Amino acid sequence: MKDAPSRTFGRFRAARGPKGQRITRFWPFLCIALILLAALDLLAGNGLGAVGGVLLWKLRLPRMLTAVVAGASLGLAGAQMQAVFRNPLADPHIMGVSGGAGLGAAVVSLALGSSAWWFSGTSMALAAILGAFLTSALIVTLSARVRSSTLLILGVMLGFIFSAVTSILQYSAGEESLKLFYSWMAGSFSGTRYGELAAMAAALLGGMVLAVCNGKGLDLILFGDDYATFSGASTRAIRTQAMLSASLMTGMVTAFCGPVGFVGIVAPHLARRLWGTAAHRSLIPGTMLTGAFLALVADILANLWPTPLPVGSTMALIGIPLVLVLLLRNTS
Amino acid sequence: MTIKIDHIGYGNHILVRDIAFTVSPGECLLLAGANGSGKTTLLKALAGGAIPSETHGHPRPCKREGPVGEADGRGRSEAEAVSGGIAPPGQILFIPTGIPKVKGFSVREFVRTGCYRESDWAGRLRPRAETRLEESLKLLGLSHLAERDIATLSDGEFQKACIAVGLTRRAGLLLLDEPTAFLDVENRLMVLRSLRDAASETGTAVIFSSHDLHDALQVARRVLAITPDGRLLESGPENREAVLARAFPHAGW
Lengths: 332, 253
What we know:
Helix content of chain B: 25-40%
Strand order of the largest sheet of chain A: 1-2
Structural class of chain B: alpha/beta
Strand content of chain A: under 5%
CATH topology of chain A: ABC transporter involved in vitamin B12 uptake, BtuC
Number of domains of chain A: 1
Mean pLDDT of chain B: 79
Number of strands of chain B: 9
Mean pLDDT of chain A: 83
Oligomer: heterodimer
CATH superfamily of chain A: ABC transporter involved in vitamin B12 uptake, BtuC
Radius of gyration of chain A: 20 Å
CATH class of chain A: Mainly Alpha
Largest interface: A-B, 35 and 37 residues
Distance between the termini of chain A: 31 Å
C-alpha cells in the first residue's frame, strides 16, 4: 500500500506496515533524541559542564529522571482530559486539578504551619494528591450536568477560586512555611529523593495502565455522548476511569514538583501531529514521549543559568508559544 | 419483525402513544413528522432507551414488547433475548445525527471505534468482523477512502462511514437520525441510495428520519409518520402520500 495522502503532516510521512498499522519513523528518532536530551540535562546546572560522583548521583540523575516521569505523567493526564472534555485546551492545569493539588499543599504548609510535628514533604504530598482527587471528583460530578464547553470554563473558575484561597492562606502564613511554599509553588524537578521518584513512577505506571485499558473508550467519547452510549459504552465509566488516572498522576507530580503547566496541553497536540493520529492506541505512548521531551527541554533551560530558574516558568515560556502556534494552525 | 411500544415521552409529557408497526429485513423506511413530534425520541426508544446524559429529561420507553419476530439466520435470533426494553447489541442500532468528524482517525479506525462492544480491550476486531468491515466499506463505495482521515471526507462520505459502522456491527435494524441533515442535494441522494442498496444487499432493515421528504421518498418503500396528535401511522407501498398528508395537514400533500 502506498503512503496515504492527507494523513501526513508536512514532511512527516506516516509509513504503513503490512497489516495497515501506522508505523512512523518517529519512534526511534524520538527515543534517541530523548536519550540525548536526558544526557544533556545531566550536564546542565550552573551552565553546562561535565559532572561526576556524588553530584551526578544525588542531584542531577534524580532531577533528570523526575523531569522524564513528570513530563510523561502530565502529558498523559492532559491527553485523557482532552478526550474527556472533548476540548483541545483541557489539561490538569487549566481544569483546576493542579490548583486543587496546590490548595491541598497550601493548607498543610501554610495554614497548619511547619511547626506541627507531622509536617513533612510527605504530608504535603498527600494533601496535594487529596486536593487533586477531590477536584477531579467535583469535575466528574459536574460533567454529568453541564456541557463540555461550560465545563472548561467551570474548571478555569475553580482554578481561580483555589488560587484565591491559596493567596488568603499565604497572607496569614509564617515566614518559614511561606518560603517552603513559594519554592514548591514555582515548580522544580530538582530536590526529589529516590523514594519520591519511585512514588511518582508508580503513579505513572498506574495511570498508564488505567489509560491503556481505557483507550478505545477515550476514542469513542470523542464522537459524542450519544454516539458512545448507543455504541454500547458507558460514558460515565470511561470519564471516571480517565479522571482517576489523570488525577493520580497529576496529584503525585504536583505534590513533589509543584504545579507545572502547559505540558498537559502541548504534549498531546505534539504527539497527534507527529504520529498523525488521534487514536489513543498511538497517542498514549506518543504523548508520554513528547511530555518527557518537553519537560527535559524546560529543565535544561531552567538549569543553564548560575541561579536555576523555576521550571514552571521555563515550561510556560516554551509551552505558551507552542499552544498559540497550534491554535492558529488549527483555525487557518 | 413487529415492534410495539405503549408510548414515548419526557416525564409526564407523552409524545407518541400506541406505537405498533412491522419491519421486514432489507426494507428501508422513512420516519416523518413535524419538528418536535418525537422522531428522535422514538428512534432512541427503539434502540433500547439508553439515555444519554446530555439530553434534558428522560425519554421513557414504556411497556415495550418486542421486537417480536422470527429469527432469520442473520443474527436476528438475538431478538428473543430482549428483556426489560434493552435490545442486545448488534440487533437494533441507532446512529445519531451530527457526529463530529474528529481529525486523526482513518475511516477504518472510525468504524472500529464504533464497534465498542465487539472489539477487544485494545480496540481490535476479530477476523470475521474485520472482513465484515471491509465488505461494508466496499458495499458503500468507501474502500478507496479506507485509510483517509475522516476529517478530510465530505459530509456525505462521512455519513456513509457511519452507516458502515452499523453494517459492520451486523445491525438487524439500523436507525438513523437525520442522515441527510447537513448534506447538499447531490450528497443527500447519494447517501440515501447507498443506504437503500446496503439494506437490500445485507438484509438489514433501515428506519431513517428526514425532513427532506422529496428525496427520502425516492428510496423509502414505506413511510412511518407521526401525526400532530401523537399517533404513529404506518403506510404501505402505495399510500405513502396519504399517510404523509395526515402527518403534515398544512403542507398541502
